[in-house]
């Protein structure tokens, strides 16, 4: 098992609220290394007789794959909008490990579950499902075709605001950070009809101020 390739980060694109009560989890592994992954989870305050009680064991699904990595995903809910969770990974040789907030723990072949794990201490935590923290893209964004522009290098629409030493357009085959061509917002405005013809209806500008 390639443990170096296994990656998860709480409260990030690897653990986020998809709806007000649905938590989506992702984990990355090496490509063609892991046979299956399940998520073990439970309410962090559900203790009985000194033992933390786990209430969910969800099998993850394979999603995106790259030349080097495989990504997995699962969805979980929680009655009280809070969860502790960890991952049980089984590789192509049948070896299993638990992966949590404190790293890896070995699982025995005779007990391929989480019965021997370190209680709630070695679990990732989602303290509370905060609706205010959930990313909600506006409807118009979902229908937008974006065009990204580095304004200084796009078009010079107003030569009166050119910085000192501005070069003629396309005068250098090897531009550097110290070279200026005078690109400005007026240059972008002058090309709005061209964007419209291309089907572009959203512009994303890299920083337009000195940084």
Q: What features would you describe in this structure?
A:
With 211 residues, this protein is mostly beta strands. The protein is built from three helices and 14 strands. The strands form four sheets. Strands 3, 6, 9, 10, 11 and 12 form a six-stranded antiparallel beta sheet that branches. It has a four-stranded antiparallel beta sheet with strand order 1-2-8-7, with no helix packed on it. The chain is elongated. About 2% of the residues have low confidence.
From the structure above, extract its key features:
211 residues, mainly beta, four-stranded antiparallel beta sheet, 14 strands, elongated
**Rg:** 25 Å
Topology order in helix (H) and strand (E) letters: EEEEEEEEEEEEHEHHE
Give the CA-CA distance, first to last residue.
44 Å
Q: What is the percentage of strand-forming residues?
A: 25-35%
Mean pLDDT, to the nearest integer, reads 88
What is the assembly state of the chains in this entry? single chain
Helical proportion? Answer: under 10%
As residue ranges, the low-confidence spans are 109-113
Q: State the major sheet.
A: 6 strands, antiparallel
Q: Which structural class do you get from the secondary structure elements?
A: mainly beta
SS elements, strand count: 14
The backbone outline, from C-alpha atoms, is: elongated
How many separate helices? 3
């Amino acid at each position: 098992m390639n443990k170096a390739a296994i990656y998860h980060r709480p409260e990030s694109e690897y653990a986020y609220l998809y709806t007000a009560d649905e938590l989506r989890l992702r984990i990355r592994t090496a490509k063609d290394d892991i046979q299956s992954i399940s998520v073990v989870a439970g309410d962090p305050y559900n203790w009985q007789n000194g033992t933390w009680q786990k209430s969910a064991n969800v099998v993850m699904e394979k999603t995106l794959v790259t030349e080097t990595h495989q990504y997995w995903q699962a969805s979980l809910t929680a009655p009280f909008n809070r969860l502790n969770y960890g991952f049980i990974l089984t590789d192509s040789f049948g070896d299993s490990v638990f992966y949590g907030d404190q790293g890896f723990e070995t699982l025995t072949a005779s007990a391929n579950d989480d019965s021997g794990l370190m209680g709630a201490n070695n679990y990732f935590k989602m303290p509370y499902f905060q609706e205010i923290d959930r990313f909600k893209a506006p409807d118009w964004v979902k229908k937008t075709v974006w065009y990204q522009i580095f304004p200084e290098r796009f078009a010079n629409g107003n030569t009166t605001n050119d910085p000192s030493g501005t070069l003629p357009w396309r005068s250098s085959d090897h531009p550097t950070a110290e070279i200026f061509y005078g690109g400005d917002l007026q240059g972008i405005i002058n090309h709005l009809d061209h964007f419209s013809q291309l089907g572009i209806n959203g512009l994303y500008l890299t920083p337009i101020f000195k940084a």
